[in-house]
Amino acid sequence: MPDWHPAIVTSRAPAADGLTDLVLDIQGTPLVGTHAHPGQYVRLCLPGMEAGLFAIASPPEPRGARWEFLLKDGSPLPDALIRLPPGAQVHVSAPEGKGFPLERARGHDVLLFATGSGISAIRPVIASIRREREAFGRVKLYFGARTPGAFAYQGELHSWEEGGIQVVRTVSQPGVSGWLGLTGYVQAHLGEDTVGDSRAFVCGQSRMVQGVMDALKDRGVPREHIFFNY
Fold this sequence. Notes:
Layout (H helix, E strand, L loop, with lengths): L4 E12 L2 E7 L15 E5 L6 E4 L10 E7 L3 H7 L6 E4 L17 E6 L3 H13 L7 E7 L11 H6 L2 E7 L10 E2 L15 E5 L2 H13 L7 E2 L3
Parallel strand pairs: 7-8, 7-11, 8-9, 9-10, 11-12
Antiparallel strand pairs: 1-2, 1-6, 2-5, 3-4, 3-6
């Protein structure tokens, strides 16, 4: 069992269709500054409920005392967390997982793949890259969502692009939304870019992860250059 520490809800707000942004304050706990690598995750728990794993959606900070999370509704724990008012207490564990090894991507082009709530683990990668943008080559995010309204962090996409991150969005179920952009799976939109020496960071459901791995392998990216946050 992990050691639990109290965190306080400071804000929650809709992030996209079916997604909510939750911010927790860990000030005064031993957890301050323990988020060391983008892509790490923690366990959140409420009394009487089974704990769940959630990626930290904010970038690592040396003295960071504020962690953001992206909650997908439709399950008991996320639904309960979404209903909490500011000031409520949540039990949180220390960060787990190795995260994404950004140091392995220095001097190389970077491919980022995320679908749905998986963008929560990729967002801190983007923030970390932007802090030292000159250390990396071309950076391209392939961001997939089920519907046009299901893209989280839409308000940040423009600043990501201004910061040298090319964003490719694709929708798997456009329906009658009037969406005029790309459709289909993220890996279907690699285009004609030369990607063989790129480093790839991937987060999404297992079927998407396998599809991205297969597509990158077909394009000459070795398995050891493809990274996940677990």
